[in-house]
């Protein structure tokens, strides 16, 4: 009976660890505004994303001015070129982070939006003074310049990720309690500790498979990007998400390995 109880508690601890990994990463890097901005800020270093963002900023601002043909094109090209010239400066990093922050705030605002949009006015502001100096017209700052990154309704995504922090706390608490109970009822605690460590490694391995195989396909199917900038951002962000998740999984796997070693040492001492 104690063996069955130990096995059941091991299963609970392993499943709870699996859930806790996903929920904890989501709470830290998606639900959290600062974590989201930090994650997306890394994408801003990609040259393709920079070019696509500069093109989008130029076209969107030129459209906002309502000016005809030649002036419209000069404004779009000027903003694009000005933004690209500043992508290696701290001003670009600040503007990109502010754009990411606006996207997160809109995504988690009430009521939940029906699409994914971001305010790219910080990017336009980088080049506006330079562009205005070369044109015979005065170009006011846009104030707010929203562009649609995806028409996919994010309601389900927002609802799920909004619960991530709570789910993570419950899952981690469940894993810890189940592990302690498994050790308490087990006849061979060294073996149980080893099994718990293997369970943590197994949970990390399962997330590694999901992250590298299932996540890119899921994002491609669900994230219907409407602009070139949106597509580049989606693809690059997916790569950064997988890389960030891998770091978390490495720490979980190392923790599991430590438990395995402790369990083996405990068994060796008892034998």
From TrEMBL:
<keyword id="KW-1133">Transmembrane helix</keyword>
<keyword id="KW-0472">Membrane</keyword>
<feature type="transmembrane region" description="Helical">
    <location>
        <begin position="241"/>
        <end position="265"/>
    </location>
</feature>
<protein>
    <recommendedName>
        <fullName>Integral membrane protein</fullName>
    </recommendedName>
</protein>
<keyword id="KW-0812">Transmembrane</keyword>
<feature type="transmembrane region" description="Helical">
    <location>
        <begin position="164"/>
        <end position="184"/>
    </location>
</feature>
<feature type="transmembrane region" description="Helical">
    <location>
        <begin position="191"/>
        <end position="210"/>
    </location>
</feature>
